[in-house]
Amino acid sequence: ALLLAVLLWAPWRALHGAPLTELSGDQDFQLFLQRNLEFTRKIRGDVAALQRVVCDTLQLCKEDELLLVRQELDIAQAPLEQCHRRTFQAETCFSQIRAGLRIYHGSLATIRALLPGHAGLVETLQLDMANLSSNIQQQMEDLGLATVTYPTGNQDPLPTFSSHFHHQVGGFFILANFQRFLETAYRALRHLTSL
């Protein structure tokens, strides 16, 4: 029985640091991808729900009508260029997804302040984001990829707005940027399932 355990364990150890093409047939990795595609889809749905609330309650619905105001705002946009280049790198893409989730996790406090009646949805969203980030970190560790541990606590200052209207428009763009970020992250995870 011990020999069988060693034989079953050894191939998995050999996968650590293996090129991703070799991992594409790995069941644990495929399971991770499927589970987190679902998770990302759920988070996108929650962001869309908040976008509908912003549209219904604040009458902020169309991005092109708000572009002039946007120029006056300092809204962070998390980069994900490592996730859609032709030279796709899973390690850097995963790291960028985690860094972006951290940025948006913090900036959702702006949305909670804007929509106090929907604080429960914002908190659920933040919890899901934290779980997705930790799933990705765990998977990176399992694959022997380098991980960056971000300090807990919110290190990034929240954007400040000069008026209530700017706060509302800022919230609109935080959600719009986050939705685009999630779409790219989703495509990246889906791309990994097809390698």
TrEMBL record:
<dbReference type="InterPro" id="IPR030473">
    <property type="entry name" value="IL6/GCSF/MGF_CS"/>
</dbReference>
<dbReference type="GO" id="GO:0008083">
    <property type="term" value="F:growth factor activity"/>
</dbReference>
<feature type="signal peptide">
    <location>
        <begin position="1"/>
        <end position="17"/>
    </location>
</feature>
<keyword id="KW-1015">Disulfide bond</keyword>
<protein>
    <submittedName>
        <fullName>MGF factor</fullName>
    </submittedName>
</protein>
<comment type="similarity">
    <text>Belongs to the IL-6 superfamily.</text>
</comment>
<dbReference type="GO" id="GO:0045639">
    <property type="term" value="P:positive regulation of myeloid cell differentiation"/>
</dbReference>
<keyword id="KW-0325">Glycoprotein</keyword>
<dbReference type="Pfam" id="PF16647">
    <property type="entry name" value="GCSF"/>
</dbReference>
<dbReference type="InterPro" id="IPR009079">
    <property type="entry name" value="4_helix_cytokine-like_core"/>
</dbReference>
<dbReference type="InterPro" id="IPR040117">
    <property type="entry name" value="GCSF/MGF"/>
</dbReference>
<keyword id="KW-0964">Secreted</keyword>
<dbReference type="GO" id="GO:0005130">
    <property type="term" value="F:granulocyte colony-stimulating factor receptor binding"/>
</dbReference>
<keyword id="KW-0339">Growth factor</keyword>
<keyword id="KW-0732">Signal</keyword>
<dbReference type="InterPro" id="IPR030474">
    <property type="entry name" value="IL-6/GCSF/MGF"/>
</dbReference>
<dbReference type="GO" id="GO:0006955">
    <property type="term" value="P:immune response"/>
</dbReference>
<dbReference type="GO" id="GO:0005576">
    <property type="term" value="C:extracellular region"/>
</dbReference>
<dbReference type="GO" id="GO:0005125">
    <property type="term" value="F:cytokine activity"/>
</dbReference>
